[in-house]
Amino acid sequence: MKRYLIAPGPVAVDPHVMAVMSQPVMHHRSPQFSKILSQVRKDLKYLYQTNNDCLIFASSGTGGMEACVSNLLSPGDKAICIVGGKFGERWAEMCDAFGVEHVDINVEWGHAVDPAQVADALDEHPDAKAVFVQAHETSTGAMHPVEELGKIVGQRDGTVLVVDAISALGVYDMKVDEWGLDVVVTGSQKSLSLPPGLAVVSVSDKAWKFAEKAKNSHYYFNFLKERKAMAKDTTAYTSAVSLIIGLAEVLKQIRERGLENLFAHHRLLSGGTKAAVEAMGLEQFSKAPSDALTIIKAPEGINGQDIVKILREDYGITIAGGQAHLKGKVFRIAHYGYLSQWDMIIVIAAIERALNELGFKVELGSGVAAAQRYFAEHKI
Fold it and tell me: Which residue from 68, 66, 43 is spatially nearest to 244, judged by alpha carbons?
């Protein structure tokens, strides 16, 4: 059975990039690898739209998130966490792990935070040293207004804005410097279209001042050690050599393609899929939808996990189900990774058939036709 990976991470990887990574392993302290690493860091700045340092760690994106908490804050410090899904909860849990007091702004799942709530929280807690947020919440599909949050936090010298963009960076426009995003995390297994294993963190000049004063314990995830190593075109510890070589190829392709074309590609896949959802008589879950993925409510009386199971076991297509209290209530389709409009048409056709098998009558081809029309009318 041919397999399709259309889940929000890990994602399908370009076979050419896999081939590049399969070359003989290079020593991580060799001049040849240092040259590659140096170019990767330059190209990361292009992707991030920043002049800030970009640190690379061998870990999943969660390691990058943890590094932000441990390197920027000290035990007893206060932070504001925007909690609107599983990954917002993760910021709060990490604060607990490192003895950081946190004030949570609880946002209804599927909704974006109101910037006024953040401004009010900062007025009420002027001693908060960080605001932690997702660019979009992958568990709900909701996109948070990080540009507006950058303006709010940027007015406060004693607070940094930390953004989890693990499944957002490279999907849609995020002007890190222009928007005042102090620290931004991404991971290789999402929009960078690589296997899991790399976390990247951009750190602003403002954030470096926090890192230089923070007293939390850390050893491997150490911003200051990585900055020192970066000056010598290396990493503090053993580099994930093959993954970084793959990253070099991905970033080269992004430069050749251009950011606007990259964003337009994801916008196209998202728009066609969302048009199909409406044509099938289904409903999106998110009230502030992102171009990174489409989250669909399971029809009344149907378990969303059954849709996921049929697609995976009978059709060879892997999508994702809901998390926490959304399990069984929604299913999720990604638009990043090595995917095209034809992958979207395949997964839409499969969903039509699965729904019919489960007793929810959908006219076969209705969603596919809507997606086809959208793709034809919105050529890049």
Answer: 43
Phi-psi region for residue 70, left (φ > 0), alpha (ψ -120 to 50) or beta? alpha
Which one, of 295, 278, 284, lies nearest residue 86 by Cα?
295
Question: What is the rounded CA–CA span in Å between residue 110 and residue 46?
Answer: 31
Q: How many CB atoms lie within 10 A of CB 241?
A: 19
Tell me how many domains the chain contains. 2
Both 245 and 304 in a single domain? no
pLDDT at 192 over 90: yes
CA distance 330 to 82: 22
| Unique residue bearing structure tokens 């909704």 | 111
Range of the domain at 282: 259-377
Question: Exposed e or buried b for every residue in 167-194, given b needs 16+ CB within 10 A?
Answer: bbbbbbebebeebbbbbbbbbbbbbbbb
Q: What is the DSSP string of 223-261?
A: HHHHHHHHTTTS-SS---HHHHHHHHHHHHHHHHH-HHH
pTM over 0.90: yes
Query: What are the pLDDT digits (tens) for 68-82?
Result: 999 999 999 999 999
What tokens does 179 get?
């928007």
Distances (CA, A) of 139 to 9, 80, 97, 110, 297: 12, 20, 22, 9, 13
